[in-house]
Amino acid sequence: MAEKILEIRNLTTGFLTDGGMVKATDRVSLDIEKGKTLCVVGESGSGKSVTALSVMRLIEYAGGMITEGEARFDKQDLVQKSQLDMLNIRGSRIAMIFQDPMSALNPVFTVGEQIAESLRTHKRLSKKEAWRQSVDMLRRVRIPDPEIRARQYPHEMSGGMCQRVVIAMALACNPELLIADEPTSALDVTVQAQILELLLQLKQEFRMSMLLITHDMGVAAEVADRITVMYAGAVVEEGTAADIFERPRHPYTIGLLQSIPGLEGERGGELYTIRGAIPPLSNIPPGCRFHPRCLYAMDLCRTNEPPLRRSLSGHMAACWLDDTGAEDPRPGNPNNRETKVTIGNRPEVTFP
Amino acid sequence: MKHEYLLEARHVTKYFPITTGLFNRVVGHVKAVDDVSLGIRSGETFGLVGESGCGKSTLARVLLKLKKATGGDIRFEGRDIEQVSSSDLRKLRQEMQIIFQDPFGSLNPRFLIKDVIAEPLRTHRKMSAKEIDYRVVELMELVGLDVSRRNRYPHEFSGGQRQRVGIARAIALNPKFIVADEAVSALDVSVQSQVLNLLQKLQKDLGLTYLFIAHGLNVVRHISDRVGVMYLGKLVEVARTEELFAHPRHPYTKVLLSAIPKPSPHRTTERIILDGDVPSPANPPSGCRFHTRCPYAQEKCATAEPLLEPTGDDRQVACHFPL
């Protein structure tokens, strides 16, 4: 098996509210292989950003706490690290970029100074050398006239240009892992196309791995090696882009894909909708969390939580109806059931 | 009298002055909408697409007379809306409504949901309290809201439900024309499909005409009969939806369509990636405004401005060398 840069196991993050502890993510497990891109997709409140912030240990500053699980990065569990240790990891070995580039930049410093800051902090470079490297970084994110641009302030740049600066800042210390939380959601489609292309090129150039969070299935299809689908705080499906788009196995993924109006084929008819609404995190249904909205829900789904099971091809889904044997590359293999592995410690129940 | 278009705009411009100094000296203009002509037919959905700052929202507000046009004329059912008297304007306002993007910012947090929906009725209709209550219940049922929650405040509703409140408010006065300005853009995919279905159902049941503005091109394709594409204050192409998406004729339309990430693991069309940014609308390029970024630009494009001309088959394109 390929080497993993990040292994998240049963990561549970909660927020203390008046009504008690609310779990924003519930036993999330996911892996990122070295040099690969994992996209986490899901709707608002599915826990995708909370997962990323928990890995960065920034969630504690947002009022959350990790109650269970681990996040192994380069064989070290980030959950057990002190915030002091995290200071040396964040920005230097794991970098993160956010949705709104304008608010990620400090308006009173030039962009060159802001890139130089992280180089001076993490690499202890001299002022002159840090400046030289930050101009070089602007060139590497394909900003024209980098010497001039480095002396400009964020308000003098467009949204797309600012996002390039943020990317330059994140990559300045040559991180092994880049976490991008909705990096193109605030941008127009033509600019989004530029930034996605840039991220893919830079991933090769810097030999880094990427965790990209998006609500846009199209963006995920474009950049992902593997895709994780989250619903109401939990992982419901994981697989390659082909697995997710051509052979989706969880009813939520299937419903989500059907709800998106297409760019080809028939149009104008009634769109498919998933019945009901996303449950509040303080009131997650028992059993399978999707069962009240699921067209195929059985009695078992109302009481027992389905484990996330892996098929031989590596496609994972958390659904009782899912018969992963159908995916076996060797048809008729009698050992299909035994080859399924339960990931994490979600309840293991024998299939009835 | 029957008109071909419910709403017709001819050579509409909207300039915002750029001022400077103590006396607000005007030093230039942002040409947000520059010489746009279009017609919206009764009962159709006209989609308007373009990137931020292209002037699509400004155009919609000018068409509704929420902003005064700098030039050109706008006719609603054949009447020039710039010329109507103030009492006629009151009537006109009832015919044209708007649904906004932000379901959080567009509802007064101090109003109960029933009051949000009743407000246009109280302003424009002489109805008793009982009649208003009855109409509010009717409207809430029409848009699929739980009537028992009418005495609650907006913050108790989810984004999709608030957007339904915005829709109920817009249809309260039985308008003919509704502008949906990014009405589904802030919603999650699963909620978006519910609201799109509602908008289509209401159009069929109430005979509405929509101007549907969005940057999500798949959504526009789904709901629109015809689509107009804007770039830097200009309408560059208008066509029936199927034709526009299958065979874009303006290079910008082609680029825009190719840039959309498709939810499929196989890419069927080649992606065209533009260089640089959208130029400033205060100082747009000479000739064709797209020539600085156009992959097909020729010499003529830098000097002569192409006009939006019909190319047959109910289609218009503003390009010297259409594809």
Automatic annotation (TrEMBL), chain A:
Residues 6-257 form the ABC transporter domain. GO terms for biological process: peptide transport. CDD domains: ABC_NikE_OppD_transporters. It comes from the Bacteria. Keywords: ATP-binding, Cell membrane, Ion transport, Membrane, Nickel, Nickel transport, Nucleotide-binding, Translocase, Transport. GO terms for cellular component: plasma membrane. It comes from Cohnella endophytica. The keyword Transport applies. It is a peripheral membrane protein. InterPro entries: AAA+_ATPase, ABC_Ni/Peptide_Import, ABC_transporter-like_ATP-bd, ABC_transporter-like_CS, Oligopep_ABC_C, P-loop_NTPase. The complex is composed of two ATP-binding proteins (NikD and NikE), two transmembrane proteins (NikB and NikC) and a solute-binding protein (NikA). Its EC number is 7.2.2.11. It is an enzyme of class 7 (translocase). Pfam families: ABC_tran, oligo_HPY. This is Nickel import system ATP-binding protein NikD. One of its GO terms (molecular function) is ATP hydrolysis activity. Residues 323-352 are annotated as: Disordered. PANTHER family: NICKEL ABC TRANSPORTER, ATP-BINDING PROTEIN, OLIGOPEPTIDE TRANSPORT ATP-BINDING PROTEIN APPD.
Automatic annotation (TrEMBL), chain B:
Pfam families: ABC_tran (PF00005), oligo_HPY (PF08352). InterPro entries: AAA+_ATPase (IPR003593), ABC_transp_ATP-bind (IPR050319), ABC_transporter-like_ATP-bd (IPR003439), ABC_transporter-like_CS (IPR017871), Oligopep_ABC_C (IPR013563), P-loop_NTPase (IPR027417). One of its GO terms (molecular function) is ATP binding. Gene3D superfamilies: P-loop containing nucleotide triphosphate hydrolases. One of its GO terms (biological process) is peptide transport. Keywords: ATP-binding, Nucleotide-binding, Transport. Belongs to the ABC transporter superfamily. This is ATP-binding cassette domain-containing protein. It comes from Cohnella endophytica.
